[in-house]
Structure formats: C-alpha cells, structure tokens
Design brief:
47% of the residues lie in helices and 15% in strands. By secondary structure, the protein is α+β, with helices and mostly antiparallel strands. α3 packs parallel to α4. The termini are far apart.
C-alpha cells in the first residue's frame, strides 16, 4: 500500500474542505467578500456557494443573505466566526514570519468561481447535496 491509497472520505471534513475551496477560489479571482459584493453576486445569480459567519450580529444582514440564497436556490454554508472567514478569504496582512496579522472580519463570502476541481470541492458539493435533500 503506497501513500496514494488513503481513504479521502475519512480525512476530509466540512470546515477543512471549505477553507481549501475558498483559497482556490481566491487564487482564481472567484470570491465576492462583504455585504455589497455578496448581495450583487447573489442577486445577479453569479454565485455557486454562499458562506455566512455564525457570529454575525446584524439580523437584517442574516435575513438579506438567507433570503437571496433561498430566492435563487444558492447553497448556504455556515462558517465558525467572522475572523476565521476573513482569514480564509485572504483579508489579512502577513508579518515577517508569514503569520496572518490584522485579519479583517467578514460576515459573508460568495464563491462565483470555484477555480480548479479538487477532492475538497467534491466533498463540499456532495455535503451540500445531501443536506439539500434532507431539508
């Protein structure tokens, strides 16, 4: 058994896959970050996926994003918090040791283009499809 025979389903989790998908979308310029950009992308139906932070304090913000996602049938995934979501989307500066500093918190991110396909993207899409069927 060589290193390529690892069972991918057991090594992937939702948040790790989401982080990889957001990084690849950022590299391929496929992210909309912040309420204004996200609302435009959702309304124009350019979005493939929407990520909303769980610790968003503005109820109007949450209502708007969830309503736009439901109206246009765009999957909505919850991220742990705003700071983590901002870091995953590249909203930070690196210090001299390549550690993220000055992370800008964001409550909403929309993926307009996934970029390249990967095992994490496949896992995330299958997770979305199984959760959509349960609702």
């Amino acid at each position: 058994m060589d290193g390529g025979d690892i069972d991918i389903e057991n090594t992937l989790d939702l948040m790790g896959s989401l982080q990889v998908v957001l990084k690849k979308a950022l590299i391929h310029d496929g992210l909309a970050r912040g309420l204004r950009e996200c609302a435009k992308a959702l309304d124009r139906q350019e979005a493939h996926l929407c990520v909303l932070a769980q610790d968003c304090a503005e109820q109007d913000y949450i209502k708007l994003v969830t309503a736009l996602c439901k109206m246009h049938d765009i999957p909505l995934v919850q991220a742990p918090n705003r700071e983590t979501l901002g870091e995953w989307c590249g909203l930070y500066k690196l210090d001299q040791y390549d550690n993220p500093r000055k992370v800008v918190k964001t409550s909403c991110v929309v993926v307009k283009s996934f970029g390249e396909t990967s095992a994490e993207l496949d896992f995330l899409l299958s997770w979305i499809n199984t959760n959509k069927e349960q609702k």
